[in-house]
Specification:
252 residues; alpha/beta; two-stranded antiparallel ribbon; 17% strand
């Protein structure tokens, strides 16, 4: 299978416009050339990619799969060009950093802001991941620096403490646990939670520890920020686990 980037971009343009004619125009290509390229892709795969109808075209299941991968490939190419353009403009360094949810939302922004201001010729590629994924990426050489929880397997890594970041259970003021000084996850695992959105590194970290204890947490709602989570808990919707620094800030 040999598709070039022009083929992939053309197919996306056709799929997005719903017309080979419009897709060809967006791709700065003649209709005949565009039709020939799409036929060539279908012949190579041995399956139709488009359903041709009087009012336009619709992607087949194979076409939808191709469109998905085409977006991924083209986005990666655009990202590569962007990074290489930085070097053409005089960039001297690119640091790839993986971090967990709390580091990304609470601790890294002011640190990175000061660093980037003092080092104008350095760029930082920052991405949120689960702590155990960060450790694996560091060992594989897939990133330069990781900010992760010390509960992950740190074997083979050079580590240095960045911030002390304990997790805290937050509950409504009238909750039965409001006066407790400490609590185990196992003690509250059967209650209804407010959490961060699916895929959040912190939420996956908490769920992982719950599963180790044979529990599955139940969420009434998932939100995008610690502020929103704390507000929802304050309204009595459920309980939540957040970094202590966020709990202190939003305690009101």
């Amino acid at each position: 299978m040999r598709f070039d980037l022009t083929d992939l971009r053309l197919f996306l343009n056709v799929q997005e416009t719903g017309s080979i004619t419009a897709g060809a125009k967006r791709s700065h290509m003649t209709l005949a050339s565009a039709s020939e390229r799409i036929r060539g892709m279908e012949d190579t795969l041995g399956v139709p990619l488009l359903l041709r109808e009087p009012r336009g075209v619709e992607p087949t299941p194979a076409g939808r799969t191709l469109a998905h991968h085409a977006r991924v490939v083209l986005a990666q190419m655009d990202r590569m060009r962007g990074e290489l353009d930085h070097y053409g403009l005089g960039l001297k360094g690119l640091v790839r950093v993986l971090c967990n949810t709390t580091a990304l939302s609470e601790y890294l922004p002011p640190v990175l802001g000061a660093f980037l201001k003092d080092h104008p010729r350095v760029s930082v590629d920052l991405e949120e991941r689960l702590s155990h994924e960060i450790a694996d990426a560091l060992r594989a050489g897939a990133c330069d620096i990781g900010v992760l929880a010390d509960s992950a397997d740190l074997h083979g890594l050079h580590t240095q403490t960045f911030r002390h970041d304990p997790l805290t259970l937050i509950v409504p003021p009238d909750h039965a646990l409001a006066d407790r000084q400490s609590v185990l996850l196992a003690d509250v695992a059967d209650q209804e939670f407010v959490g961060l959105v699916e895929g959040s590194a912190l939420q996956e970290h908490i769920a992982h520890h719950a599963r180790r204890g044979g529990k599955a947490l139940s969420y009434r709602v998932r939100l995008r920020s610690f502020d929103a989570v704390c507000r929802m808990v304050g309204q009595g919707v459920g309980i939540a686990i957040v970094p202590r620094v966020a709990a202190a800030r939003y305690g009101r």
